[in-house]
Write a structure and sequence with these properties.
The chain is 61% helix and 0% strand. The chain is mainly α.
């Protein structure tokens, strides 16, 4: 396991996906943000879901995604919904 699994919500599978899309460090993840990281993952895994998006945002904020403020969750939900087919 690498550096990213030190963050909340990031297990070895999500870290593997992040690595596949070129994100290997915490700073890289913070730089591109949860939305772009999720879009990059979705390009290699069409099953990328809303929970994964929230997990990425929570990781960046340093908290479990369940504890994201409701406003953040709503913004992420709106973003996620805009990509549903």
């Amino acid at each position: 396991m690498g550096e990213l699994t030190k963050l909340p919500n990031i297990g070895k599978e999500l870290e593997k996906q992040l690595n596949q899309v070129g994100v290997e460090t915490i700073d890289q993840l913070k730089h591109i943000g949860s939305r772009q990281a999720w879009l990059n993952i979705k390009s290699i895994d069409p099953s990328a879901c809303y929970n994964r998006l929230c997990a990425l945002e929570g990781a960046i904020q340093g908290i479990r995604w369940h504890y994201l403020p409701e406003e953040n969750k709503k913004e992420l939900k709106d973003f996620y919904e805009s990509f549903k087919i």
